[in-house]
């Protein structure tokens, strides 16, 4: 069978969900992504692992799901549920049937794009292996250096579990992931790597590598010029510095470094308030550390933020977005901050360096150096003109980072190189 003209197959890790009425639900941001893909292709087939209600509620996820029928492009999208098989026994049980299904989908679609990441249960990687067997051109996409993330996941554990996870993740699973990534990426006809951290790690492996971005914010989500001017006016009046971060309270995000940076600022006598927006496994321990550091009242960990509008409003209201990321990844929160006219400052790595390439790199400091980061923030606090100029830069550059722009960019690459 010849592939249907202008059709795209996506194999993604974000799970579908089946509710008690057997209705298919899709994570809210994934809905937006599917609709944006459908603006660029005649038919889009999306295959994802699928969880039931019991698995959904036991996972403690805070993701918002919508009925598949709410997709703008519902009549031009085929949704294919795959087994949720992140345990070795389940993965082996479903391997042959899933590979056969993926093989049929690959044969029936002209363009192939696989969002790889992980080992057991990563159907995108299996799809790539099947595409290699069929001698089909395919693209890979990833937004973080997965084997590096696995290497650091043990940090969220305690006691003997921490030792076990260190041996399993850092010494064994990370090595296998790196080998699998190299095999799949080196045989891809197109590599699309979100952010400079991923691009730097993978671009030499692939025949055709491109730096891309994965954003779900619209032009209407950008801070208006009027509101930006009001924020700049507030900053120039010398008001207390408003600091924010948005992300999971997990080891790879560096929450304890972030707290220590706030502690350093307090010691330096900087007048500020700080908010961490997000949930995660280290949330309660982080709150305890605030008490130990006498930061209660000045620094707050707010927990889960259910509404995107409320989250963006909090980021827009801040003067600076401070991050302490520990692993090579390309978190969207940095671009979300720039869309909000909120300058980013944090640990140095290729991704934020690329975002700030046309402005002073003095906003970034070496990883793990909380004192240097605090001094950087103090400098911005003392030099409000520099801070205001950084806000203006963020507003100008963010026009390139809307969902419509970044999905159109990736679609053009797929059509050109596949």
TrEMBL record:
<dbReference type="InterPro" id="IPR001296">
    <property type="entry name" value="Glyco_trans_1"/>
</dbReference>
<dbReference type="Pfam" id="PF00534">
    <property type="entry name" value="Glycos_transf_1"/>
</dbReference>
<dbReference type="GO" id="GO:0016757">
    <property type="term" value="F:glycosyltransferase activity"/>
</dbReference>
<feature type="domain" description="Glycosyl transferase family 1">
    <location>
        <begin position="237"/>
        <end position="392"/>
    </location>
</feature>
<dbReference type="InterPro" id="IPR050194">
    <property type="entry name" value="Glycosyltransferase_grp1"/>
</dbReference>
<keyword id="KW-0808">Transferase</keyword>
<protein>
    <submittedName>
        <fullName>Group 1 glycosyl transferase</fullName>
    </submittedName>
</protein>
